[in-house]
Amino acid sequence: MSNKRIEDRVADNIRLLAISMVEKAKSGHPGGAMGGADFINILYSEYLNYDPNDLAWVNRDRFYLDPGHMSPMLYAQLVLIDAFSLDDIKEFRQWKSLTPGHPEVNFARGIENTSGPLGQGHTMAVGAAITQKFLQERFGDWTKHNIYTFISDGGIQEEISQGAGRIAGYLGLDNLIMFYDSNDIQLSTETNVVTSEDTAKKYESWGWSVMTIDGNNPDEIRKALDAANAETEKPFLIIGKTIMGKGLLDENGASFEAKVSTHGQPISAAGASFAKSVENLGGNPENPFEIFEDVAELYAKVKKEKSEYAQKRKAEQAEWEKANPELAAKWEKFFSNEVPEIDYSAIEQKPDTATRVASSTVLATFAEQMENMIVSSADLANSDKTDGFLKKTKSFTKGDFSGQFLQSGVAELTMASIANGMALHGGVIPVVGTFFVFSDYMKPAIRIAALQELPVKYVWTHDAFRVGEDGPTHQPIEQEAQIRLMERVQNHSGKNSMLVVRPADANETTVAWKMAMENTNSPTGIILSRQNVKNLPDSTYQKALGAERGAYVVKKAEGQPDVIMLANGSEVSTLFAGAELLEKEGIKTEIVSVISEGIFNNQDEDYKKEILPANVPKFGLTAGLTVSLESLVKDNGTVWGLNHFGYSAPFTKLDKEFGFNAENVYNQVKLLLKK
Question: Are residues 510 and 433 in the same domain?
């Protein structure tokens, strides 16, 4: 039996399992996992509140891992609470394994978030902390729980940490506790090669409480966590100075700690001795996948205590529900993931308005009827028209989360990642807004939302070159083609990883929001115009419901059409103008509004052939890259689009110069039909 303290034995056991996983897989990141073992053990055994028999318990504390490459540390810890088996971690990084190289969200097994791209994990924790405050404001202190997160040097360096740190400090998120695993080593260098910042002062300037400790000393970890839990005004940063590869030895039995080489490869490949290191940690090189007997005994006690605590909290909730049946029903509804009941047909839209304004009208209705919606904007609420929602609520401030609006400031990536954290926590519906061209800043978080199957809603306005005078920096060209690729990527449930909709008029905008709200298993992007858009002829909400199939006929030809014209957004009304000129010459036209290529491609073959029959020539019109419609037009037609950057000028001038008018539609269709 070892003479080490039990806390050190547990940490060594975590280190042992971590290096064994990586060694067996011949792939992974062992060094950081070894340094962080002391903290994660103290957290899970003494501070984190969870139910080992119900890891998805809604009122649990949450732990968000930022450096996903440190998954061996998390998996090893979760083995100790029986969320994973030893056999599970033996399959680390293998096909269809429960333990992929970077953790993928799985509440039932204690994985709160998918992590990998550095900086996003702790930013999602900020979103979860905001959500906890939001819910506590509405349902009472019995809902209070903490949000813990773990960040590495890389996460500190990623620019997103600026936005996350600023917002958390400004809002005084005292329920947010972050451990910074500061081991002075990153993948290819020591950190002093790339930075000399004073991280503590940086976070203090943002309004955080900060404590620097020996991150491998259990007593100092406890002292820091006690202080963090006692904090009532600020988020808390624990800077833990840890040792990369703690416990490693080389073949001569000398220390092999604090080496850059152990960050991202098996320790044997890095230059350490696997056998001697395993022995040094108290394990058996012939059977390194083991849980020490004294560690198993400790965690049996831990699980019992955690379960008893959870049962007590659940009993308190049951008593509260009996005393507050209406609030209890609301709580259940918030977490149900059910589609909110909205009478979209009752939403009155002004005709011939910008679709961003039509979106604002819908958001105003949501503000009155969706009590758990949280809307955010990147300093553009009055332009992206999310202020339709804001005007009927108020923004979050420190100590006051009674409103439903988050002012994110100019931080699109941070805002999108915070929304992911809100969705992961559960109980709220996150919506974020900015200009479409700035969706470029958001794409890393959009991709993680799609991978996690999170129903975040993105409001993207100023959708095309018609932004006009602001010029090419603000005029989206390639953005629609880029984001629609996500409709083609399948998620792990075998469905489109994202829904992207660009409505043609005000009524289609109402339907677009209906589609977004009913999409509860993936993110949705709603692309909206800056300029006014004419309503489609005879447009009504009921007719616009055809958009729910992705594409539908908005102008039917009399008899067999000579040409089918297709577009989305404001280009649909341009097709109508062109059709008037064509039909004066007896050319029979049919017009299709394609709000979502992804949804249309999911329809049955009969419907797709009915809408776009193969034997009829087709003309597509798009304000972006022509690839957006080429897959629908195919060989029997052509697409007019914009394959170059825009210019600064009034949008009406750009329409003329770029060929987005009735005359050019007429000319291009005439050319097509002559082929």
Answer: yes
